Amino acid sequence: MKEKLKELSQNRLVGSVTTLFSGSLVAQLIVVGSSPFLSRVYTDVEMGIYTLMVTIVTLFGSAICLKYDPAIVVADDDREAYNLLALCVFLSVALSLVVAVGYVIYLGKKPEILQSAGWFAYLNILVLMLTGLNDAFFAFNR
């Protein structure tokens, strides 16, 4: 058994996976550990605004380029990569505008969100578009 563990510990893949796992575990522990402190520092309204922003970006941010951004990485040549990047930028802006229209309609029906969040409610639209652009340029940079 000790020999198997020693063999596994010398395996590069196991070491890499263990490093990633432990890093993710530490990150999650930091979030869980800081929650009691953050709930005392920020008001319920501020936490609600933050949750609203994170929810919208989480729901729409990963698909704002219609997942064309991974195709940039496997493009055959530079021209195809540039064309895919342009497509991702266009989709990010266009779909952000579509989501913005829906979001403005939603905020019109829920004025209490707009009253408590103020201009932060509209910041979601910009953050969503920037998330898509970040994904596209990050994929292009690989």
Characterize the structure shown.
There is one protein chain. This protein has seven helices and no strands. The chain has 142 residues and is mainly α. The mean pLDDT is 87. The chain has helices at residues 2-10, 12-41, 44-61, 69-73, 78-109, 111-117, 120-141.
Give a summary of the structure in a few sentences.
This protein has 142 residues and is mainly α. Helix content is 87%, strand content 0%. Helix 3 (44-61) packs parallel to helix 7 (120-141) and helix 5 runs antiparallel to helix 7 (120-141).
Report the radius of gyration as a whole number of Å.
21 Å
Number of alpha- plus pi-helical segments = 7
**Can you tell me the residue ranges where pLDDT is under 50 for at least 5 consecutive residues?**
none
Instruction: Kindly report the average pLDDT value.
Output: 87
**Share of residues in strands:** under 5%
Tally the beta strands.
Answer: 0
Shape: flat
Task: Note the gap between the termini.
Answer: 41 Å
Global structural class: mainly alpha
Biggest sheet descriptor? none
Order of helices and strands: HHHHHHH
Helicity level: over 70%
Break the fold down into its secondary structure elements and pairings:
Elements: H1 2-10, H2 12-41, H3 44-61, H4 69-73, H5 78-109, H6 111-117, H7 120-141
Helix pairs in contact: 3-7, 5-7
Relevant terms:
single chain, 142 residues, mainly alpha, 87% helix
